Amino acid sequence: MENPSQKPDQIPSRAENFSEWYIETIRKSDLADYTVVKGCMVIKPYGFGLWENVRDALDKRIKDTGHENAYFPLLVPESLLLKEAEHVEGFAPECAWVTHGGGAELEERLAIRPTSEAIICSIYANWVKSYRDLPILINQWANVVRWEKRTRLFLRTSEFLWQEGHTVHRTDEEAQEEVLKMLEVYREFLETELAIPAIPGQKSDAEKFAGASKTYTVEALMQDGWALQAGTSHNLGQHFSKGFGIKFLDVDNTEKFAWQTSWGVSTRLIGGAVMTHGDDSGLRLPPRVAPVQVILIPIYKAGLESALNEKIAAIVADLKKRGVRAKADLRDNHRPGYKFSEWELKGVPLRIEIGPKDLEKGTVCIVRRDTREKAFIPEGTVAETVDRLLVEIQADMLKAARAFRDANTHRPGTWDEFKTTLEEKKGFLLCPWDGTAESESAIKDETKATLRCIPFDGGKAEPGDVDIRTGKPAVARALFARAY
Amino acid sequence: MENPSQKPDQIPSRAENFSEWYIETIRKSDLADYTVVKGCMVIKPYGFGLWENVRDALDKRIKDTGHENAYFPLLVPESLLLKEAEHVEGFAPECAWVTHGGGAELEERLAIRPTSEAIICSIYANWVKSYRDLPILINQWANVVRWEKRTRLFLRTSEFLWQEGHTVHRTDEEAQEEVLKMLEVYREFLETELAIPAIPGQKSDAEKFAGASKTYTVEALMQDGWALQAGTSHNLGQHFSKGFGIKFLDVDNTEKFAWQTSWGVSTRLIGGAVMTHGDDSGLRLPPRVAPVQVILIPIYKAGLESALNEKIAAIVADLKKRGVRAKADLRDNHRPGYKFSEWELKGVPLRIEIGPKDLEKGTVCIVRRDTREKAFIPEGTVAETVDRLLVEIQADMLKAARAFRDANTHRPGTWDEFKTTLEEKKGFLLCPWDGTAESESAIKDETKATLRCIPFDGGKAEPGDVDIRTGKPAVARALFARAY
User: Fold this and answer.
1) Other CB atoms closer than 10 Å to residue B399's CB: what's the count?
2) Does A253 touch chain B (CB under 8 A)?
3) For the sheet containing A68-69, what is the strand order?
């Protein structure tokens, strides 16, 4: 996994080729790679360490809002998928099918779950009998498979990891409250942990989840001006409860169909973090989720190797004791410059260099990955400086991402301006929309921009607003963008 | 999920029908249940909470011994499985095969991983070039599928959850050291966390993992006298590195095949904990992994409901602050007796009852699940008493399990005694063995007892030892039992 040459592999610049930059950054920073299995990736230890931090931060929030984890079967009998018409129409084309098991052909083929509504609803139907059994507030961390023709590491792979919440409620109001609560959990989590300022809003009918009555989303803007759907929360209404017979005896002693929600985020968030924060030197990871927060690198001089190693070991031990994810790079087959580039590529938020002069003076050199700002500080202040800088970097990265998003959110006044803006600047385009699928699909056909959402903030139509494409009276202001 | 009647569902006694007791205990305590998908279970929130504690405790040990987690593809092309002859022979018959994806038939069918050696080795072959790339110390938490005709919750299901470590080393010695290190991690983890005193040892050639050069195991004894293989650690030698071309340039500048190991434990550990500790009232969970360690139940009296609820809320909050997993059962549609039975069934280590008299006297009643011992203690000593009792219960459960195991480990002197002992007492039978597959399979055919392992402790043949079945000179003393 090491490179014996003097410099780490180079990555293309973002301006040159954003897509190549993205893939090569991920591969060369050891986050993930393609495999011989078409469309399936390996998440390497460095990438999985990042995912573990992301997962744990979200898992805590999911539990703090009253949910519990459970585990449901991977395989979904075809007959179950067929029970909700829109759902099967949406997912059957991307299913991977198991047709043989234990040396024999199966009587009924089984889909590898593309999402788990069907299998989970078939089980919930047995669990729910009385209003006292509600709400059911369950989440699952799992792998899912959706057969993809074109794949891209983290963003679109045939197998990916995710969490899927599946809840059941007594009333529509309760379900809707849950849907919005979890969307807000996602928004806050993205902002706090991944420094991604995502825009919450509602999807149009055309972009809804297959089988949902309403879908909400958090939409993020990548550095190439493309949007990324970072998480979704669905109000399933009674679509699945009617299909699967999830009924309960209510307080008033009448039998009713339950109200349901589902919500999920996936490993594509890792791709979102890469494209939100990375630069031409590679990753820049938000400190709160970075697998390594501080990398310590000795500048060796003959005779001083063990003194430097000892000093570094002491600092690493001290930082670790304080809960900082610190690591030393003591390899003797690479020069410091090589190591600097490699850990920059890996996006470690802080680098500490210690050389012979530092030993003498009792100092260290500390370098921020985000701004490359460099400072010499007394050895005794390392711990407090690291604590402070990690918080600062996290805040500054969010600030920078928010500034980029705001600078790239446009409000074209005419259809021509819409097209020019999209062509020349990309980004988010916030425009009045007449609420019809016709206008939405005309915009998509002519520009490849899709309706990302009607944002909670700024999505209301003002008096006199007319649809950017059709000129008809607008019912909302919608956010359009080309999207991953 | 509640039962409106006055008593929770009954379970059969262990003596009556151990197998039924096992299944009904798991279903009625809400650990898990069967689903419409043949052979696949749903792990319910209570069972998954238990698994999360087990998983986290083991994950910490896996990381503390220098391993990192990663994630490899679910799907394994058939051509990869074929690269190691014994491996494919062992696993192909139990594979589930994906033959269609994205609406089309696949050119090559894909197995859902029954274990990941094949897919991981195909990837390691690209990662390993120099001795500097070694060792690779990686673990994966994942789901696997092995098609099973007869299934039993947790013990044998077509899909199960597990961790699988896959390591690559420069030398045979290093690999062997890793294999034994991880076996010891399992043994210590089982003893410390699950209070299961497992016996470490080596498998015979007949019981080896398909493709391994040596397999080691930790074997536990269940209350019905049957053995359970609780975890295995394999020295894979160069079998896979030769099949998959995992080669490296060594220090001496020659190219060599690497040495590998793999090791795993699975959700069957939950079944092992149930069968080691449960009694006729249901589960008895070891405090260290119990999802709920203390359940608080009010004995309501008209007019005192809110005073009791407040008192209980204060104690729960205090216990939680100290890291104790405490929970209150304030349901108003069940009597205290019903709740007592239900939480006994769920195996919660400690129960605290608070009634009107306790309010008056400033006391609570605390009851151990393992011994049913009951004590009235001053309210102010609850926290310290809980801390102390949880440690005591954990230790006492291990002590009881070890005493049971020792009492049920027999040393028959003759073949007739072997058969009688197995028939009448079951348990472990430690006997001299001549080291041949012939003797081993004759024993199995005649008694259904399999060779569980040659234990590290007590597995050496003494002078004059002769095989229990053939009378030929013995090479070891082996542990036999009927096994799950």
Assistant:
1) 12
2) no
3) A68-69, A136-145, A159-169, A259-266, A227-237, A214-221, A199-202, A450-455, A476-481, A428-433, A409-410
The whole-angstrom distance between A73's CA and the closest CA on chain B is: 6
Q: Dig out the tokens for B397 from the structure.
A: 């459960």
Stretch (H or E) spanning B219: strand B214-221
Pick from A44, A98, A333: CB nearest B70:
A44
Tell me the ipTM for this assembly: 0.96
For residues B267 and B286, is the Cβ–Cβ distance under 8 A? no
In angstroms, what separates the C-alpha of A298 from chain B's closest C-alpha?
Answer: 20
User: Is B145 in Cβ contact with A75 (below 8 Å)?
Assistant: yes
Domains of chain A with CATH codes: 18-277 (3.30.930.10), 294-396 (3.40.50.800), 410-481 (3.30.110.30)
Residue A86 has what pLDDT? 86
Q: Which among B126, B205, B163 has a CA at the least distance from the CA of B478?
A: B205
The one-character DSSP state at A9 is P
Q: Which residues of A touch B76 (CB under 8 A)?
A: 37
Cα separation, A156 vs A151, in Å, equals 5
pLDDT in tens, B194-238: 999 999 999 999 999 999 999 999 999 999 999 999 999 999 999
* Interchain CB contact of B75 with A (< 8 Å): yes
Residues in chain A: 484
Closest-CA residue of B relative to A150 is B102
How far lies B185's CA from each of B59, B160, B215, in Å? 11, 21, 15
Min CA distance, A33 vs chain B (Å)?
10
For the entire predicted model, the pTM comes to: 0.96
CA dist B472 and B481 (Å) reads 21
